[in-house]
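Changelog-adjacent note: as of this version, every example in the card shows the full chain rather than a window. The one below runs 314 residues end to end.
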Amino acid sequence: MNKYKQSLVLLCLYLILSSVFYISVTQKSQQVVKQKIIQIEKQIALDLPLLDLSNELLKHSGNKDAVNSYIKALNSYIDSDDLRVVTIVPKSEMVTPIKPNQIIRSLSTSSGFVLVVFSVKHTHFTLSHVIYYLMFFVLSVLVSFWIKFAFIKQSNKQLINTEHQIITEPTPLVLIVDLSDKTLSSSCNPEQKISLANKPLCFYLALVEYCTNNDDVALSHNKDVPGELLELANKYFYRLIELGHTVRKRPNFNNSLEKTLSEIRAALDEVLNECPEEKELYYPPKAYGEGSRSRLHSYGLANIRKGNIEIIGK
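Full-length structure tokens:
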């Protein structure tokens, strides 16, 4: 996590905490003020008969000094800078528009309605509030560093796991066929080279190429070798001649098929001795059973596409 992201996390945390605190304090303050106003209204309603207010019907001017003294005494009783009673007047005498921070409440009397004007002061930033905001900032800093540490720890863990997988992941086996010396070997033990005669070598390479190009092919022991497979075998045989190998005559790949496959299997057994789990990919299947079961058998390399064969001198 870079500094920009950490700063963004810090800012978001601080704004969230501060906003929640501000909303909570504001709602609580409004609730307290509302309850106080209700209590003051009840007290004024009880004292109204004793107040010498003006009465337009009776042509009575009232005693404003006495009313102001009552308001002063009432504010002393309230003892709050956030809420004060501004004036108490009959509704008919209320002509001055109220200020944004003032609230009007109406009380009903036998001679009409009396209006009570309250002044409400909302204090958003007191010393205690500032302390809380500083605490939120410190907490946001600590949490942002904790998130950064957790992020770095998780990233390092993933990096270590990835490196471990790369280190421990086994290298795929490669079956190496070298036409220059007519040998088979594998990448897990390249020093161990097994020689193979011309016929089984050419037939195996042809079988690999044929099965790679033909999915789900069925090659039966009881049928002649397909023409395409024979052409591929002859191609590799002529390649051996081009490489300078001494040969007497071109072999008949249709003859002694099982013997040819046995020689291939024997060579693969030695090459893949240390990797027996890989045999299924490269190993021509053996025929089991007799009669109809044997006739249904295929010596084709069904999974050769998943294998990895390197032919040197092709």
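Structural remarks: Strands lie at 83-90, 102-109, 112-120, 175-178, 183-186, 189-195, 309-312.
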